[in-house]
Design brief:
Blueprint: E1 29-32, H1 38-47, E2 53-56, H2 67-70, E3 80-83, E4 86-88, H3 91-102, H4 115-141, H5 150-171, H6 184-196, H7 204-214, H8 217-221
This protein binds glutathione.
């Protein structure tokens, strides 16, 4: 057995950028749909006070379907993050990489106390995120109500509510997910909890956690700016009658 892991091969890297500015300038660029998962990354970039360029897209327009964006993100999702000559396509990987390389105070390095909890929360943000994505699709994107499944919407609402209980168990007793204070995983999970509040009634402990998140100046700077597309147009989306 070799003592050190092998050097990464080119296939370990994310897909290379095929055009545009990627890798040329050394600039950090975030492709972002206001209020979507990419808000996690915009919030974290603001927390870290990093210089970056923002490319705002509209989920309902052709912004994310054309060849130009496909060269950045082959499946046309948001976010995409250009950083250090590559493009990353998963918000969880972005949170980890940004904390690892630019914000160790918001990270828990391998071997550090709290590492497992940090990692678990990072990925749990997507357990919440997938239910939010399904509900967003049903409530907002399927404009013809006859194409919606009431059963699926009810199930997703219940599953989201249940998943939130895991966050509640922690934030009922402390301000942030990690005992040591605000961390990068709060950007990932905090966005999920705040957005979940459009589909389920948050308990007092979860609402207080969401309020602590939204009170942060970096969070507020990640909210949609004047004239930017709005993903959600209602504070709360009731389950339609069966
Ligand atoms: N797991 C990915 C999910 C990315 C994703 O699906 N983003 C949504 C916006 S929240 C999107 O781009 N939807 C457009 C589509 O599905 O076509 C991440 O966290 O980055």
């Amino acid at each position: 057995m070799p003592d050190t892991p092998p050097e990464p091969t080119p296939t370990d890297a994310p897909p290379p950028a095929q055009g545009g500015p990627v890798g040329d300038s050394g600039e950090i660029i975030l492709w972002h749909v206001p209020l979507s998962r990419s808000m996690r990354i915009l919030w974290l970039l603001n927390e870290l006070e990093l210089p970056f360029a923002l490319r705002v897209m509209d989920l309902r327009s052709k912004d994310m379907r054309g060849a130009e964006y496909e060269a950045i993100h082959p499946v046309g999702r948001a976010p995409a993050l250009q950083i250090d000559g590559s493009v990353i396509h998963e918000s969880g990987a972005m949170v980890e990489y940004l904390c690892e390389t630019r914000g160790p105070h918001l990270w828990r390095a391998p071997g550090a106390e709290g590492r497992l909890g940090w990692l678990d929360w990072l990925h749990f943000a997507e357990t919440l995120g997938q239910h939010i994505a399904n509900l967003t699709q049903s409530h907002l994107m399927l404009r013809d109500p006859s194409t919606r499944s009431h059963t699926v919407m009810k199930l997703e609402t219940a599953r989201l509510g249940r998943a939130l209980r895991m966050v509640e168990q922690t934030v009922d007793g402390q301000d942030w997910l990690m005992a040591g204070g605000f961390a990068g995983v709060d950007c990932a999970v905090g966005w999920s909890v705040w957005t979940a509040g459009r589909f389920v009634r948050l308990t007092p402990a979860l609402q207080a956690y969401a309020d602590r998140c939204t009170a942060r100046p970096a969070f507020r700077r990640a909210l949609p700016q004047e004239g930017e597309p709005q993903l959600y147009t209602q504070d709360f989306y009731e389950l339609p009658d069966a």
